Amino acid sequence: MKHNFLKSTLLAGICAITVSACSSGTGSGTAGDSTAADTSSKTEIKPSGAAPDWGKSIKPEMQAVIEKLGSYGDKPIESLSPVEARKNHTPTDAVMDLVAEKNIPIPAPQVDTVGKDLALNGGNIHVRIYKPKVGNGPFPVIVYYHGGGFVIANLDVYNASAQGLAEQVGAVVVSVAYRLAPENKFPTAHNDAFAAYEWVVKNAMSIKGDAKKIAVVGESAGGNLAANVSIMARDKKITLPLHQVLVYPIAQSDMNTESYVKYAAAKPLNKPMMAWFTKHYLNTMTEAKDPRISLINANLKGLPPTTIITAEIDPLNSDGKMLEEKFSAAGVKVDSKNYDGVTHEFFGMAIIVPQAKDAQGYAASQLKKAFQ
Hints:
Number of helices: 12
Number of strands: 8
Shape: globular
Structural class: alpha/beta
Order of helices and strands: HHHHHEEEHEHEHEHHEHEH
Strand order of the largest sheet: 1-2-4-3-5-6-7-8
Oligomer: single chain
């Protein structure tokens, strides 16, 4: 990723505003955060051009992020090698640059972070652990899985989501850097995801966590991984997560669904990118039908209560809806929210995008209820 010192500093604090601003939504900010929330809400983020053809309903703040991302002039990910694609700018870069340009103040983080390497699953899996600064614990624990199609992105790109959840829920968050493809093909990421979860179950006390209060959260590919972790925990008869939050999860392999067709050219995720991700993660295309990839074909009975969050302008919008129907049919309690006018990757943009602020607050409230 293309970071400089300023961007790294912004990244470290970006969620403090994310959290404080949530006091006006379904999340709960603290009294001490109200000034920062007021400041950010007065900063107007406007796009410079007309709404794109692929997303006429796009919200202005969301469009501004997409415009900034396009301004870098990077080549389309689907035209690059994975190594090259990982050097492209990310939506997080676009958000941080807008934050800097608009002089949005960054309050101090409410969590401490530490990195840790786990010798698991025949290799090293790096995790970043977010611990609340206030209180001695034991805290509830969220095991978080980032997106990126199993091929790109990292813990920094998804820092805002992980830190925001830690601060709003008052939980320890363990953000998992599972190994990426094509260097590590299917099912490495899936096995890494479960190995990290199992480590958390066994070692929760060592990170000030409560082993009886664990949830899983994931975005996109990470949403797929989070659901698979619950399935594997059920099948291996270890502690089940109390709740799972799946944010625009990859849930099936048919790229001709309603949303794939309607938003084939959307940004920052489009249909060609999904085909590129699939090609690089899977050993053969027949594996796309594997129930670990096509969750809608998996046995979903006995899984924990589930929250599904989707974005309107997203090829994966139909995936989330189809998965919700399958969970309900399997007797799993499901709550869901679809956010109009926003794209894939919006969830971590709460510092700028109001719908993301609401979505993080919604996820946090669902998790807090589960932990109670």
